[in-house]
């Protein structure tokens, strides 16, 4: 836990030093997604030790940070989806360390995974204004459910951050689904995936930023890395003005 959080803080410092305005971390970056036997032991409140360190790193480095995600102890949270249990929760901090939103993963993975049995699904789809963007968050398996992204588009979101722990062998799914979500909603979609091996799985990395046309504008391979991209809310507005797909929807 401490070593993983140390790596996250170092990555935040490095990215901020290279001029980043927003840094996003992968799904369950502190415990490790597949370390299910540690979830209960390492769960924390929204002001717990991991999120406090990430909040402090955001403030000290003058950079917004998505701590995406940690295992949240819902018994320590007011207003969550349940009075007890665990959630897969991403928290967005601004550059002052203020918490802008907390998103709890909606769609819990049940395919050869303990997640659906262990966690409580989220209910809210929060958004936040950040440096001219309306930002939303989804998590990993959520990519397979386009209606969630429509809800975000209807809320005015033009940048979706997707912390993930996507494993081999589903490489083509990982490349296709976020690209489709970007194209459908004429929005930036930034996927932030883990890298490394567990006893039963290997994460495939390939964190990628897609622009509103679905074009990958920054990506990496399966090794640990920092991916950077320049994004523009004006580009989203111009794309939506030029191409009428959202206006042409029929219900």
UniProtKB/TrEMBL annotation:
<dbReference type="GO" id="GO:0016787">
    <property type="term" value="F:hydrolase activity"/>
</dbReference>
<feature type="domain" description="CN hydrolase">
    <location>
        <begin position="1"/>
        <end position="233"/>
    </location>
</feature>
<protein>
    <submittedName>
        <fullName>Carbon-nitrogen family hydrolase</fullName>
    </submittedName>
</protein>
<keyword id="KW-0378">Hydrolase</keyword>
<dbReference type="InterPro" id="IPR003010">
    <property type="entry name" value="C-N_Hydrolase"/>
</dbReference>
<dbReference type="Pfam" id="PF00795">
    <property type="entry name" value="CN_hydrolase"/>
</dbReference>
<dbReference type="InterPro" id="IPR036526">
    <property type="entry name" value="C-N_Hydrolase_sf"/>
</dbReference>
<dbReference type="InterPro" id="IPR001110">
    <property type="entry name" value="UPF0012_CS"/>
</dbReference>
């Amino acid at each position: 836990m401490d070593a993983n959080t140390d790596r996250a803080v170092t990555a935040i410092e490095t990215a901020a030093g290279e001029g980043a305005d927003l840094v996003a971390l992968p799904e369950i970056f502190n415990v490790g997604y597949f370390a299910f036997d540690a979830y209960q032991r390492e769960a924390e409140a929204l002001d717990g030790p991991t999120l406090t360190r990430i909040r402090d790193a955001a403030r000290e480095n003058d950079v917004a940070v998505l701590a995406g995600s940690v295992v949240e102890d819902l018994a320590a949270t007011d207003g969550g989806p349940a009075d007890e249990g665990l959630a897969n929760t991403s928290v967005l901090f601004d550059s002052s360390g203020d918490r802008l939103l907390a998103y709890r993963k909606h769609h819990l993975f049940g395919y050869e995974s303990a997640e659906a049995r262990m966690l409580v699904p989220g209910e809210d789809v929060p958004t936040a204004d950040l440096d001219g963007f309306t930002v939303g968050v989804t998590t990993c398996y959520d990519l397979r459910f386009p209606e969630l992204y429509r809800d975000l588009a209807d809320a005015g979101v033009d940048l979706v951050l997707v912390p993930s722990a996507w494993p081999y062998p589903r490489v083509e799914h990982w490349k296709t689904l976020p690209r489709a979500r970007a194209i459908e909603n004429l929005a930036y979609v930034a996927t932030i995936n883990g890298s490394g091996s567990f006893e039963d799985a290997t994460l495939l990395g390939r964190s990628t930023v897609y622009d509103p046309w679905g074009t990958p504008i920054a990506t990496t391979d399966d090794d640990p890395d920092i991916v950077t991209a320049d994004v523009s809310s004006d580009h989203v507005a111009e794309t939506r003005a030029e191409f009428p797909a959202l206006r042409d929807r029929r219900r």
